[in-house]
Structure formats: C-alpha cells, structure tokens
Write a structure and sequence with these properties.
- With about 375 residues, this protein is of the alpha+beta class.
- The chain has one domain (about 5-365).
- About 25% of the residues lie in helices and about 30% in strands.
- It has helices at about 10-20, 40-45, 140-150, 165-170, 175-200, 250-255, 315-325, 345-355, 360-365, and strands spanning about 20-25, 30, 50, 65, 75-95, 100-115, 120-135, 155-160, 205-210, 225-230, 235-240, 245-250, 260-265, 265-270, 280-285, 300-305.
- Strands 1, 2, 5, 6, 7, 8, 9, 10, 14, 15 and 16 form an eleven-stranded mixed sheet that branches.
- The protein is elongated, with a radius of gyration of 23 Å.
Length: about 375
C-alpha cells in the first residue's frame, strides 16, 4: 500500500491546528490560479515606456527574412528550461480575530538537454512544496513555531504572502488567496532563474528560457540565453525614422505585416532610460497567419541580455531567429492551447516538471488536518 506522500507535513499542519483554529477547505482542497495574463502584465510593468523610437541592431530595416537553421545544420539551442506550479487552498487558520488562507503549492522547474542526434535528456529538475500564509494576519508565536516545524522537512518552505514581489507589485492584488497563487508563481520564477544560473554550459551551448526575461536577467554574466515569450505586452507603439519616411505603428499593425519565417528589427527595452538596450527584444513569426485567429498568434517575442548596450550584430539575430523558426517543425497541436507559439523542447520540459507533481486527486486524499 502506498504511503501518504504528504505525511511529512503533519508536524507543520499540527502547529496551525493547535496554535489556531483551522477551517478545512470544503472538499478538502481547491486549486487556486494566478491571473492568466500574468506574463503579459509583468512584461508591461517591467519593460519601461511603451513608446519605442530606436532600432538596436546593425541593419536598420523593419522586417528581415529568415533561413530556417535546423539542428542538423547548426545546433545552436542545446538547453531548454521551463517551470510549473500548482497551488491549492487547503483551509483557513483563525487566531483570535485574525485569519489567513492556508495554501499549499507544488513548485518546480526542469531543464532539458538536446544531444546532437536530437534526443532529449533531463539535465536538471527541482521541485519543492511551499506553504503560503499571510504573516501579518498571524501572531509572531505561531509564525516562529511554524518556521521551526518547517525546518525539519526537506524541500519545503513556509512563505509570507503579505510581502510584495515582482508579480504582486505588478498586479497590486489584495485578496489573500489570489496573493498566494501569484506568490507561488513568483517562487517558480525564482527557481527557474537559479536553474538557469546553475546549468553548466559552454559559450556555444545556448539556453532557451520559456517566457520573458523581466528585470531578473538585466546583468546576466553567464553563457548565452534567450527568453521566448508566448504572452507579451500589447501596448507598445513604435515611432521609427524621421521625415517623410517615418513610421508609427502599434503592435498589431507591426505584426500584421510580419510574414511567416520573418522577424522584426531589434528594439531596446527601457526606452530613454540609462539601462536602455541592456535587454533587447524582437518578434519572430514561426507559423503562417492565414490559419490563425489574429495577428499575434504564431508569433513569439524573443528577448536577449545585452550587457554592452551596443547594437546587436544583425547576422547573429538572424542566426538565433532562424534556429527558432526551425524549432516549429514539431508542435503539441491539440495538447496545448498555445501550440501556435510553442517550441517542442519547451513543451517537453513543462511536461517533465508537471509529471513530478502529485495529482489533485492524490493531494485531496492525502492532506489531512490533525484532529
């Protein structure tokens, strides 16, 4: 008979049950999710002004045709990294007149290495459990005893959801359970960043990170990497050139003119700031628009650290973008609503970490508050 995988949490749950009064969640556990467009919101909040006026590469034209560069021709991308999180409301702890939601999150990330023959191998996996509560709604005595009990459990931590982080500052959410769900997503992002730093790579082995780079890769000093975002800010306006040939475009008009297998020019993040161009971005259409619903489908936003702030070599951007276009050949169509902008090795990394998680049914059956 399989042992209870969450029995290690009993001392922690006992602290809550004895130091306060616990109201278990109806039906034992309920899954809580972050705002669906959190990546887009975070991109908007961290990306600086929405008005872009500069092209940040050596060739100055709006659209660039690309030659797909498959792995068999030049194997650029060797590592792929993605994270995942599942957050569950398991009850409410009441202490005197104060109360806090109690949430349990499974958080993790996986990095996939691709060999020259195309086979995918797991390079690294990290997974942990996180108990989420609002510290400012609890006494110092309860919190310190909770921390003491948590230190006895490996790959487990107690997290204060009343403290802001990048996501919570971006969306300014107040409600306790929503804060917990977004906090868990931020912890996942931190796990991803630490994994990106810890991977042992050569300068020739590029890493593809799922999602935008935010502020966290601003001073990146490791081997080359790119962030590939399926969701991104839509409020950007581009004011390019001067005189009668000047162009003013919003994102939709820019991408409506972007053909399959083409990229836009490179733009700087943080326009008109001292850090302008330390991370740069551009858009690549990896799938034809004719079978998709609107201009943003089939397009990925590519971000890359650029510590020197010098304009990127356009040939390098073509190489990176051409390799991305070649990654579209295998797609999880029908298995993910974002298939039109998915890269298969990223999809595999996501499946790897999700397969490390306990299912909602197991969690619901296993979480037991002490009587």
């Amino acid at each position: 008979m399989m042992s209870n995988p969450f029995s290690i949490l009993q001392p922690v749950l006992k602290v809550l049950a004895t130091e306060g009064q616990v109201l278990p969640a109806t039906g034992q556990t309920i899954e809580d999710q972050a705002t669906p467009d959190i990546e887009e919101v975070y991109d908007r909040v961290t990306g600086g002004k929405a008005e872009v006026q500069n092209i940040w590469e050596t060739r100055r034209r709006l659209y660039h045709p690309l030659k797909p560069i498959p792995r068999t021709e030049q194997h650029l991308f060797r590592y792929f990294l993605d994270g995942s999180v599942r957050t569950y409301f398991i009850g409410t702890v009441i202490e005197h007149e104060r109360s806090s939601p109690v949430q349990l999150a499974q958080v993790g990330a996986a990095a996939i290495h691709r060999a020259d023959d195309g086979r995918l191998h797991i390079a690294q996996v990290q997974r942990k459990l996180v108990l989420l509560l609002q510290k400012n709604h609890l006494s110092e005595v309860l919190w310190s005893r909770l921390q003491e009990a948590a230190r006895q459990v490996s790959d487990f931590e107690v997290c204060d959801t009343s403290q802001d982080d990048g996501y919570l500052k971006a969306i300014r959410v107040k409600e306790g359970r929503s804060r917990g769900a977004h906090k868990a997503n931020w912890i996942m992002r931190e796990v991803e960043i630490e994994m990106a730093k810890s991977l042992e790579r050569t300068p020739e082995e590029w890493l593809v990170v799922d999602g935008g780079l935010g502020n966290e890769y601003l001073d990146w000093e490791g081997p080359p990497l790119i962030g590939v975002a399926k969701s991104f800010r839509r409020d950007v306006r581009f004011h390019l050139g001067t005189g009668p040939r000047a162009k003013e475009l919003n994102l939709y008009s820019l991408l409506a003119g972007l053909k399959e297998g083409h990229r836009t020019c490179v733009f700087p993040r943080w326009p008109e700031e001292s850090r302008e161009g330390k991370i740069v971005f551009w858009y690549v259409r990896i799938r034809p628009q004719r079978h998709l619903d609107y201009p943003l489908m089939g397009v990925v936003k590519v971000e890359m650290p650029n510590p020197s702030r010098e304009p990127l070599d356009s040939d390098l951007v073509d190489l990176v973008s051409g390799a991305l276009v070649a990654e579209r050949s295998v797609t999880p169509h029908g298995r993910d609503s974002r298939w039109h902008a998915h890269l298969y090795p990223i999809f595999v990394a996501e499946r790897v970490i999700k397969n490390q998680f306990y299912s909602p049914l197991v969690l619901k059956a296993a979480i037991r508050w002490p009587g």
